[in-house]
Amino acid sequence: MKTFTTPANTTPATQHFTFFDLETHWDEVLHNNYCFIEQTQSWPPRIGTRRIHAAAAFDLALAEDGTITCERIASWTMPNDGGEKGVVEGLFTHMRAQPDGTCMVGYGSIAMDVPVLKLAAMEYGLVMPTQLIASAGDWKEAWRPHLDLGLAIKGQGKTWHHLSEILVRLGIQANLLRDKAKVGFPQAPNEWHELRSHVELDTVLTAAATLAWARSQGHAGIDPATASHALLQWWSRHGTLSPRFVERVGLASDSLWRRIGSKAPMLATVD
């Protein structure tokens, strides 16, 4: 089976990915200033008033035969990493450290994540990673330097699918996805720990959806349920899990394993 859409002599044996996710909140001062300038009451607050308080990145390699290598996962939060600037700087540094040709993948990232990252970079005098500023027209490989999975699935249609809708179809328990879109701004250390678990899990779930989409497009000969189980198992050993997520991930993994049956995961892990 052909793994990538590039010609055979240019197809890489392994494609590297970094799945990223942000957690943001709207800044009351920025919002009030905008309303004062425009002499209007804008609600909900505009994208330009959002600040980043947490981020995560999950690195994965996909071999031509469908073997998955989970490489590393990292996350940053405002209290532990020097405020918004530190969170953004940490994510940018992580992205720059990836091998040439690594595809940065988000879900809805063109509409939300990248615009907010651009504004933060402008405010703090940071240079964005080339993967987030390169023109798609300049990228000749099958995988662009930045892939918005939500946009890729939407294609030319009008319907945007929630990531949770896709994940449930892949066999991931709804209980693991519950309250996924209702994460508030943490007020206590244990809440920041919970948030770190949440933002890391989002990158793992985006990876699961991306692998299923890649399979549907003929890119990789992997089983989506098997891949999802393998990713959750790896994160449970190497990620930051709060007690609530330990329980939920365990139940979700067991459910996927029952769905897989006797099929064994094709997974190479980096411990």
Element pattern in H and E: EHEEHHEHHEHHHHHHE
The CATH class is identified as: Alpha Beta
Our count of helices gives: 11
Strand order of the largest sheet: 5-4-1-2-3-6
Q: How would the global form be characterised? A: globular
The figure for the number of domains is: 1
Helical content class: 40-55%
The biggest beta sheet is recorded as:
6 strands, mixed
The CATH topology label is Nucleotidyltransferase, domain 5
Low-confidence stretches: 1-11, 136-141, 265-271
CATH architecture: 2-Layer Sandwich
Radius of gyration: 19 Å
Proportion of beta-strand residues: 15-25%
Terminus-to-terminus distance: 30 Å
**Structural classification:** alpha/beta
Mean pLDDT: 84
Number of strands: 6
Provide structural commentary.
This protein is of the alpha/beta class. It has a single domain (15-269), classed as Nucleotidyltransferase, domain 5. It is 47% helix and 17% strand. The chain is built from eleven helices and six strands. A six-stranded mixed β-sheet has the order 5-4-1-2-3-6. Residues 1-11, 136-141 and 265-271 have low confidence and may be disordered.
What attributes does this structure have?
6-stranded mixed beta sheet, 6 strands, 17% strand, Nucleotidyltransferase, domain 5, disordered C terminus, disordered N terminus, 271 residues, alpha/beta, globular
Question: Topology of this protein?
Answer:
Elements: E1 14-26, H1 28-38, E2 50-63, E3 68-77, H2 78-81, H3 83-96, E4 103-106, H4 109-124, H5 130-133, E5 146-148, H6 149-154, H7 163-169, H8 174-177, H9 189-216, H10 224-238, H11 243-260, E6 267-269
Parallel strand pairs: 1-4, 3-6, 4-5
Antiparallel strand pairs: 1-2, 2-3
Helix pairs in contact: 9-10, 10-11
